[in-house]
Amino acid sequence: MADMETTPAGEETLEAKLEAMLEIEKFEPPEEFREDALLSDASVYEEAEGDWKGWWTAQAKELHWFKEPTEILDDSNPPFYRWFTDGKINASYNCLDRHVQAGNGDRVAFHWRGEEGEERDLTYADLHRDVQRFANALKDLGIGKGDIVGIYLPMIPEVVVAMLACARIGAPHNVVFGGFAADSVRERMEFSEAKALVTVDGARRKGKTAPIKQQVDDVMGDLETLEHIVVVQHTGADCEMHDGRDVWFHEVMDKADAECPAEELDAEHPLYVLYTSGSTAKPKGVVHTTGGYMTGVTSTHRYVFDLKPDRDVWWCSADVGWVTGHSYIVYGPMGNGATSVMYEGAPDYPHKGIWWELCERYGVTLFYTAPTAIRACMKWGVGHVNKHDLSKLRLLGTVGEPINPKAWLWYHMVVGGERCPIVDTWWQTETGAIMITPLPGIVATKPGSATRPFPGVAADVVDEREGKPVADGQGLLVLKRPWPAMLRTLYKEDERFVETYFSRFGKETYLVGDAARKDKDGYVWIIGRIDDVVNVSGHRLSTAEVESAIVSHQLVAEAAVIGQSDEDSGQAICAFVTLQGEAVEGSDELVEDIRAHVGVRIGKFARPKRIIWSDDLPKTRSGKIMRRLLRDIADGRALGDVTTLRDPDVMSQLEDKIKEEQAEG
Predict the structure, then answer these.
(1) Which superfamily is assigned to 8-61+287-529 in CATH?
(2) Looking at the domain covering 124-286, what would its CATH class be?
């Protein structure tokens, strides 16, 4: 497709071809790809199913163990499963030392590109050196095994150094996405009782610099558990350094010893805590341990993306602050010795073709991104893609949300030139690694379906009442046996862990929280969340979290948030808002003020796209807000029986409001 026209007529030709290709049900793996694939024999599924513990044991043996495990799975206390319990391992050693010792220290680990065009190539030997120094710097600050270290950094190499330094000494890290506001950082540091925080003077975004350290100082001053803040000097933004608490990254690095042997840790030693939105306002601290997690992310990265480290260049466009970045920017690729691209900027800065420019610049062969980003690129037009030589691409992937078939086909045709298999992957923060996905050399793909569970994974679609398999139709997605990369608990909330994931169908069946269906071929199609979580551009947000932020605005009395389908972001946030006092409706200025307020409290990506003023909200007689009815009314669906509501008239008033809104355009 590299020679496709970029004129309006060319766009029309593309549109016609896309419409025609929507009639194609399946896309077989290209023969040339299949012949060279790491896995090309479908018998791998039967072999893994026949001895799933043996399958995972074989994947674990691909790692370096100080003491190789003999105990594979401890399932004596479900759902608190434990893997490789008598093994000794270190994630940092697996990501660095073993590659350097194997003679691959000169291999580039990251081609880093800043949004203003800055470039740095970091080899495995470079990172091995820097990680050891920073690990010693942390120890010099009194950080030891078991201490939580917060990390709040943009997409710069120091974020990888900080994560692997923590892993090296057994200090679990708690990374916070750089798009979150400082209030959310404080909340996560407080919940996890972090002893230190690694942050930055300022962060760039689309040509502007945000004063990150200054914002952190505004909210972190009275947090008693936080003893140290380490500041990376990145943009030169002014920031105040507090004696006794704040230190510069480069200064502690200069003072630290050069060598820091990796700690020999139990396989079940916590590697990190990562907070994700739940169905209540309080985020959930997902705990991942070392041996099982590394087994999951390295094996899935190797086989799902057909990785050949000596010749592939890998680019996952996610942010390290989300689990996708943890698993498929840091631990999976580096565990496999891959060469990766890391880009600090937005996909449309300094121009809308920057991603494709970087793919050409670094010779990217494997590219992994979100459907939201693909839809944005579709909107911008094929011209931005076609200016660049993408002939080295050989596989494409998607992550974060279900992809609609038209976006899948556009990705296949325009970016992949109709030669690259697409792996549409389903997984979660909680699963740690990819769970449902095509194997690109084996499985025929269907646009919009994640296809089959990864070998060794037992996923199914079941009915809501009894948890019995649904052969053909919609139900609840569940995972029916443990897997190595699964979360072990929620940080200091064991009861919430059981209640959230294992209370519906028993302690041996993990409730995913997604609705799904199976088709006649047994392929899995993810439909969407069943709880009160909104997925905006692949970012999971609890409705309660956003509602809490809205209600904290001084003029707001009450709010209810729902997710609505959105062609740009997958889902968008729609908020029904009741104001304080007698006012029923707010001004356009108040809409923007509330949106800005949410941006400060949570982050800009959490701002409601649509605000509907409401005198009251539909509630049961016990006071529970009926978000199901709000979703129906916002989407224009017919309402069922509303007589059980505390005030049935509320719905007719809201219907009138929606009609007025639609009439005004």
Answers:
(1) ANL, N-terminal domain (3.40.50.12780)
(2) alpha beta
